[in-house]
Write a structure and sequence with these properties.
Blueprint (H helix, E strand, L loop, with lengths): L2 E7 L2 E3 L5 E5 H7 L6 E6 L5 E9 L6 E4 L11 E6 L5 H6 L3 E3 L10
Parallel strand pairs: 1-8, 2-6, 3-5
Antiparallel strand pairs: 1-7, 3-6, 4-5, 4-7
Length: 111
């Protein structure tokens, strides 16, 4: 695991959009996520697990929007975990520290 945004609330689902997940850029920065980076989404409400890629969302909005086919796997208000992974050597992995973000119930960073 490279990074994780733990337990954020889905704020939008846009079926008629090219697939992806739009994430508030503040959350992206805190987790070290890059635009177009592949992420795994785990839906705590219904058990769905799927893979998509990141699009930057407006800062300070708390936006978590599933787009395209992924929109069928969530409901607005569902709690999801967003996880990214990285390849590394065993030596790198021994000292690597993942970035884990625990936003509040409004998807905002907690000081």
């Amino acid at each position: 695991m490279k990074s994780k945004i733990h337990r954020v609330k889905v704020t939008q689902a846009e079926l008629n959009y090219v697939g992806s997940i739009t994430i508030d850029e503040d959350l992206m920065d805190a987790a070290g996520l890059l635009e177009n980076e592949q992420v795994h989404i785990v839906n705590n409400n219904n058990g769905e697990r799927f893979v998509t890629y990141v699009i930057k969302g407006e800062r300070k909005t708390g936006m978590i929007c599933l787009n395209g086919a992924a929109a069928r796997k969530v409901q607005i208000g569902d709690i999801v975990i967003i996880i990214s992974y990285a390849s590394m050597t065993p030596e790198e992995a021994k000292s690597f520290k993942p970035m884990v973000v625990f936003p509040d119930h409004n998807n905002q960073l907690v000081a």
